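Subject: mismatched residue count in predicted assembly?

I count 529 residues in my input, but I want to confirm that the predicted structure covers every chain. Input:
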Amino acid sequence: MTQKNIVEIQNLSFSYGNRMLHKDINMTFPRGKVTAIMGGSGCGKTTILRLIGGQIKPKAGQVTVDGKIVHKQDRQGIYELRRKMGMLFQHGALFTDLSVFDNVAFPMREHTKLPESMIRDLVLMKLNAVGLRGAHKLMSTELSGGMARRVALARAIALDPDIIMYDEPFAGLDPISMAVICDLIRTLNDALGATSIIVTHDVEEAFSFADYIYFVADGVVAAEGTPKELSKSKLPFVYQFVHGEKDGPVPFHYNAPNYKKDIYESV
Amino acid sequence: MNPILKFLSNLGSQVTSRIWRLGAATRLFLLTLIYSGESFRRIHLTIREIYFTGVMSLIIIVVSAFFVGMVLGLQGYYTLQKYGSSESIGVLVALALLRELGPVVTALLFAGRAGTAITAEIGLMKATEQLSAMEMMAVSPIARIIGPRFWAGVISMPILASIFSMVGIMGGYLVAVPIIGVDHGAFWSQMNVNVDFRFDVVNGLIKSFVFGIACTIIALYEGYDAPPTAEGVSRATTRTVVTSSLTILGLDFILTSFMIAH
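Triage response: the counts match. Full output below for your records.
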């Protein structure tokens, strides 16, 4: 039986050494939907994607992908789950020694026995979907940031994954590239019938395409809801984040002793 | 804290961290062996790496070997002629190169030329999340990235060491015979009689094979373990040269003592 939620995070806690990053987090990602995970830098958003991909293990709780508990899988099991996932890394993470074409062909060559002629057609189709069919002969080092991100997206969808994960897809992009990626996320999700999970801190973009949004702060889900609900939210943290106010529940200053005392004592 | 206690605790943490790293490197080595089947299925990758680590190291190996051979010829002749046995110069050059200088100097040059390149490449691949991306695509970086580089290093090293010894002997010959005037026939015939295939040539090859394993796995481990920052990669590269060089010299002593005892 196919589950309604393709990914479920239940009572998840995770820590790096003694630093607790997530405390008892619960999230669900329904099939076919675009869900965004938002929060300030360093709040552990990317870690959630790594937990879903099984690259790290939770301290407590569990992540379920397609009905299977990720951290209880052996290597073979994890690799099978990962074949259902495509991930777009923050800076694309294209293989620098390969051309654009070979980067997109990489998962196909590794996991299928398709003849080279068919791989060629598929790669060009994937590149066409992100508008870069004409760039297939370039080396990945010759691409701009936005183009690299689009090629990486074509590579992430190479095997038509059920889940597409995006790690900060808009970071460091110009407005045009941003709009292109923004549009691609929604289009690809609907065209492939996939489920998308996007980690971002770009409010405007996330609110424009997401079906549901989770706000993570201080290791917990501080707020959740549809973009409409959240834009009206009066929760202080959500208000500060959505309106980009520099001070609020998230303070401008990093924890520090009294300013006056600090200055005079150092003399 | 008491300075003595501080010293002891520093010493302790240094020792444990080194033992931990040795364990982690051994683990990487074993994993590389386990995944070798998968690596060899992509044999074109190993061939490509042999080109990058082996063939591209040829120039430095050949030029160094030539000079080392010439110096051996000069120094050897200078000492031997005092005892009236300058005809033995061929044996001296050949034995020094086949037994020691060939494997050891090749491994040191390899660590500096190819080892650092491997560390920097893997370190940067890690820093730019390429290894993570590969993992997420359900492809093992150990089979696809580490394995081919490891086998390329292990295959290249004995071949490079053999080339080093050959070119070195030519260098020694050039100085001893045409320049100094040692008898051509004596140079070769003495070498022919006194160099033993099993004891000198094969033992030298065994050494360079072991150095190949050590050098390559150190370079790979340092890259794989490097913190994903510019400073992390630069430190890892330095460590590759330092650790490889010391390991080569240490291993050389151990191997030589076993070989001579035998």
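Chain A touches chain B through 21 residues (CB under 8 Å). Marking this ticket as 'not a bug'.
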